[in-house]
Amino acid sequence: MNDDDDSEFASLMTGVKRLHSDRINVYRHRGHKKFVPRSQDHKAAAPAKFPSVSTPARDSHFNSGMQTKLQRRIRQGQIRPEASLDLHGYRQHEAEQTLAQFIEHALQQGMRMLIVIHGQGYRSHSDAVLKPLVQRWLACQPEVLAWCPAQPRDGAAGASYVYLRSS
């Protein structure tokens, strides 16, 4: 380039501002939805209370923040359990207390992966008793990030892998 080219380029670039960032804010011109409170008439008509219904137990639960790869490793049994608890023969109340103590002890010891053997309920007069109890209880615990049925080598549907939050 010679001096004529430089001066010609400079004359063409008059009024052009240098960009300090190459990012484009696509949300800048979006309107925000505003919260509109309901009128007092809606508060007067309170919804009817529903009778308490016991929710069915789920097969598995994974915290929404868990990585998919970690979920897959847990489901496939690639993370070996550090401790196990066998609840065969326990009554509901005893099983719940024992499970609470087991999880508390595991958290104190810094364990992350556990296995809880609850059985499939073949000897019950009705459906399985401990399995849905354990699953509902685990779903309510903030320390439990995930639980799912174990692999066949660890007890299949009669056991659950439990993945705990780090302490």
Helix content: 25-40%
Structural class: alpha+beta
**CATH A-level architecture of the domain at 67-164:** 2-Layer Sandwich
- Unreliable residue runs: 30-56
Please state the overall shape, judged from the principal axes of the Cα atoms: rod-shaped
Order of helices and strands: HHEHEHEHEE
Number of DSSP strand runs = 5
Structural commentary:
- The model is unreliable at 30-56 (pLDDT under 50).
- The longest helix is centred in the middle third of the chain and has 18 residues, at 92-109.
- The protein contains 5 helices and 5 strands; from the N terminus they run H-H-E-H-E-H-E-H-E-E.
- Strands 1-4-5-3-2 form a 5-stranded mixed sheet, sandwiched between helices.
- It has a domain at 67-164: Ribosomal Protein S8, Chain: A, domain 1, CATH 3.30.1370.
- It has 167 residues and is an alpha+beta fold.
